[in-house]
């Protein structure tokens, strides 16, 4: 048997990849986070599949489910929201599978920040304006941030910052970034990206916190701060430039 860590995408059921959907439809067991993964995706599981909501399970209980499936010779679809490569807590599951000698594979998904950028209709990297995107979060009740990765330090780069798990601390985010970006810096918050109840807020560091509070956004959101969000005057990319020599590899 194999455990498949599948990126379910940011929310819309049809944003799972073709590979992810095919794998989901072939697995006898599906572990999913009920609070984050759309229920419509579960309809793609085999009719007799064992469905396990992991929202209230700890890592040892989740591991026990994976071990039980292994003993029964059943493939497992381990559905994670967004993409498994960031803020997904798959590392500790993989570590336990390695210890148990259970094979696994990872199937990528559409990350929340990409869905948020699509909702904003913005490219996050803009020629001569900004070519760096920082994906991060802030330390609160969750695991502490490593030294040097606090928001004030990262903000010194001036790069576009994408914050996960921080909407309820938007005042703190603004306070730590204003010294580096200025109150006029474009900012946006997208909650429930790609879902029918998607919320899109656009503004600056001066007013985005007030918008977040007025909209009642507390979680399942990403905050974006950076000049590329408002870029209008910039050079065209060299990729499609008429001056580019297209005979040179």
UniProtKB/TrEMBL annotation:
Alphabetical keyword list: Cobalamin biosynthesis, Methyltransferase, S-adenosyl-L-methionine, Transferase
Pfam families, sorted: TP_methylase
UniProt entry tagged with the keyword Methyltransferase: yes
PROSITE patterns: SUMT_1, SUMT_2
GO molecular function per UniProt: precorrin-4 C11-methyltransferase activity
Enzyme Commission number, as recorded: 2.1.1.133
GO terms classed as biological process: methylation
CDD domains tied to this protein: Precorrin-4_C11-MT
Biological pathway: Cofactor biosynthesis; adenosylcobalamin biosynthesis
Positions of the Tetrapyrrole methylase domain: 2-208
Family: Belongs to the precorrin methyltransferase family.
Protein name, entry field: Precorrin-4 C(11)-methyltransferase
Species for this entry: Streptomyces cremeus
Organism lineage string: Bacteria, Bacillati, Actinomycetota, Actinomycetes, Kitasatosporales
